[in-house]
Amino acid sequence: MKSRSLARHQMLDLLKWLWDVMAGPVLDVLGFRETEKVTSEEWPRVCWIPTGSLCLLPIHAAGYHCETSSRTVLDRVIPSYSLSIKSLLYARRNKAQRIQGETSDKAVLVSMASTPGCTDLTFARKETLELESLIPASVPRVVLHKPHKKAVLAALHGCSVFHFAGHGLSHPSDPSMSTLLMTDWQTNPLTVKDLVTMKFHQNPPLLAYLSACSTGDNQDLKLLDEGIHLMGACQLAGFRHVIGSLWEVSDKHCVSAAKDVYRTMVTAGMSGESVSQGLHNAVMSLRGGPRGGAYMTRESRDARLVETDESPENDIGDPFIWAAYIHMGI
After folding, report:
1. Residue range 78-92, pLDDT digits in tens
2. By the 8 A CB rule, do 210 and 22 touch?
3. Do residues 266 and 231 make contact, with C-beta atoms less than 8 angstroms apart?
4. Measured between alpha carbons, how far is residue 246 from residues 138, 144, 197, 255 in Å?
5. pTM as predicted
6. Residues 247 and 213: beta-carbon distance below 8 Å
């Protein structure tokens, strides 16, 4: 069952079930039972490698979020995902290829406030403008607004950070054709295939941040274990860290999430470890800690329009907002 098809209260029930049958027992066995951390660097990190139908479920968000307790993944560890044990080991072996904190390579910031055939995204341009002001002046940047595919692929060569704010489209039958929608997407789409062929392994970029809908989604149930989606494509291409989403994300809240991530990264000198830490901070903020938080609006970054209920049903942030974001990498 696709998570985005669940009502909010059903989603919360799903997160409780995931905690009871899997995440909670695993963290208990690993000894991660405490929730109070002195500094963000002291948070333990757990990398989930789901298979089969588990790839569809938000394991990273499992827990009892209506309670002021530590019975949640987020309140015990910083969660990440990997495509496989092999890819995780490969990433660890190649972790030392780049100097930690090195920021000499360029940042590529792409925004698609308007996309042919799709709804406009009011906050996409604002998102990249905010990031321009956050990224250190010493980091060269290429800023592209409503570009064509060719310009984006050309800019990616030699980049350290690739940030895309726009629409994403998960292909229902051929996940290799899932697409980041540029101006010419209807005639020349930028697909999973295109990203995989951009082999950055000799000089692995730090981060691909796909601020779009369903970039970690594979709708072909026969290929769930293959990691054939936009996030997986970026990791296979060589990006050390990838941030994306399991389902539709709110256009408005994408801005605050991205700001939290990059603010954490800049404070930590753009280190690799700060990426997952930054997303953890962002998700906790959207969730609102133990209570409160953000609620879904009708503007999402998916080429498929989805009606959502804007009235909050719980005293916590909407899990369809904060649980959508995931991190891949180490």
Report:
1. 999 998 887 777 666
2. no
3. no
4. 33, 25, 23, 17
5. 0.86
6. yes
